[in-house]
Design goal:
3-stranded antiparallel beta sheet; alpha+beta; 4-stranded antiparallel beta sheet; 445 residues
Length: 445
């Protein structure tokens, strides 16, 4: 029992507290006097975790541990690099050969997988996992006979591995031995009743054997094992549809599609947003390059009222500038290199301005006093503010509907000769009617 006194904290004797106080006072004195450097103890006692290496661990074992960590993060390329380094350090490391064969097989690099699986078996002939990986890689290369031999050996060496049974059953199905494939799948399910691959494989084998009821039952078992598997629901929907249950099949297919959307939504959304962002950035870069060179420097005393991008003159892009003395079109640099010229129209030279609006854009036509017509094409989002500015400057009529809008050139509105004749005839007819009425009035009187 610890001593308890009224003058000390609970559970601590007085002489120990005094000793601790003296030691702490001494340490503080040394620290303030500079005899004990700041942080020296912490640096000496707590080394960096990154510099800590397992004691007496070979380099290839350390590299294999790094490879396993990389594989757990789905970084197979990094894991394979570590394993290649481990094999370079120790070519007789059977585990490194096996892991490299396994990871390369998952990446569908079957040639490398077969090579390292054989090297592993040369060092460890009765290693069942290496036989299983080799059989899987040979099946990927469509070497089904050798694949069946290796997978059968894996099952013989390790009869408790459901994955080896499932792979062997899949190879038998690829060889057309559906009855044997179904039997092997059932053996896999005895070992691992929740193996989704075995349930779906059994359903496929029974479907090939035209056992519709057994196929539907196997698919239902797959859905029970993995209720959130889109593949299981899709297979069940297909089996039900083939058996005549259209409504049940459609229901399962809808569930399958919904689960697929959930599974791939984040990837799809990220890809979709990235694609659109790339498109917008590409267009922004193109327009930035196109219009970067259309710089305008006003004359001395000239005031720039406003300038508009996205303007085209003779199919050359540039800037539409309105100042207090003139209207200027400045082509961008690339167009200028290919012969586009700057257009400058003094305000007193402008006789009239006409607009033509369409669904895709619009045109501003400027008629000068020397009967020259200058047409500038632009999108509607530019045309509207351009028209408002020109109206505010008194360069055009406030109501553009009063102007001719269907002509490519500005023409003064003059009445046609036919219209004059018609109007004259109407006046003559009216005059004759009035004269006859006067004669009737005189006769009546």
């Amino acid at each position: 029992m610890l001593e308890k006194t009224s003058a000390t904290p609970i559970g601590y004797p007085s002489h120990r507290i005094k000793a601790a106080f003296l030691i702490s006072s001494l340490c503080m004195t040394l620290y303030t006097s500079g005899l004990l450097p700041s942080g020296a103890q912490s640096k000496a006692k707590v080394p960096d975790s990154k510099t800590i290496q397992p004691a007496n661990q070979p380099a290839d074992v350390i590299l294999m541990a790094k490879a396993r960590r990389a594989e757990s993060d789905d970084r197979y390329d990094v894991a394979c690099d570590y394993l290649s380094q481990a094999i370079a350090v120790n070519p007789k490391n059977a585990d490194a050969h096996y892991l490299l064969a396994l990871f390369k097989g998952r990446q569908n690099n079957y040639d490398v997988s077969i090579d390292h699986a054989k090297k592993c078996l040369a060092l460890r002939p009765n290693y069942a996992p290496a036989h299983s990986v080799l059989g899987r890689a040979l099946a990927g290369k469509r070497n089904l006979n050798d694949a069946a031999v290796e997978l059968s050996e894996a099952v013989r060496l390790d009869p408790t591995n459901a994955t080896s049974y499932s792979n062997l059953a899949a190879v038998k199905g690829m060889q057309g031995e559906y009855q044997k494939s179904g039997d092997i799948y059932r053996q896999a399910l005895k070992i691992a009743p929740t193996n989704l691959t075995a349930h779906l494989g059994l359903a496929s084998a029974l479907g090939k054997l035209n056992d519709k009821a057994g196929q539907i039952e196997a698919c239902r078992n797959a859905v029970k094992v993995a209720p959130k598997s889109s593949i299981a629901h899709g297979r069940l929907g297909y089996a039900l549809t083939q058996n005549g249950d259209t409504m049940g099949g459609v229901s399962e297919v809808v569930k399958s599609n919904f689960l697929r959307v959930q599974e791939s939504w984040n990837d799809f959304l990220g890809m979709f947003l990235t694609a659109w962002a790339s498109v917008f950035l590409a267009f922004a870069a193109i327009f930035a390059v196109l219009f970067a060179g259309s710089r305008f420097k006003p004359q001395e005393g000239e005031v720039v009222l406003k300038s508009f991008f996205l303007t085209f003159y003779k199919d050359k892009p540039g800037r539409f500038v309105v100042t207090d003395t003139r209207i200027v079109f400045v082509p961008e640099s690339f167009s200028a290199w290919f012969g586009a010229t700057r257009v400058s129209i003094q305000r007193p030279q402008i006789e009239s301005i006409n607009y033509l609006s369409t669904v895709g854009g619009g045109t501003v036509s400027i008629l000068t006093r020397d009967k020259s017509v200058h047409q500038f094409r632009m999108p509607l989002l530019v045309l509207d503010p351009v028209r408002s500015l020109l109206v505010s400057q008194g360069l055009t009529a406030p109501d553009p509907l009063d102007m001719p809008a269907a002509t490519s050139e500005v023409v003064k509105a003059e009445p046609a000769s036919d219209e004059i004749k018609v109007e004259t005839n109407v006046d003559v007819i009216n005059a004759e009617i009035d004269i006859k009425d006067v004669k009737k009035d005189s006769e009546n009187s």
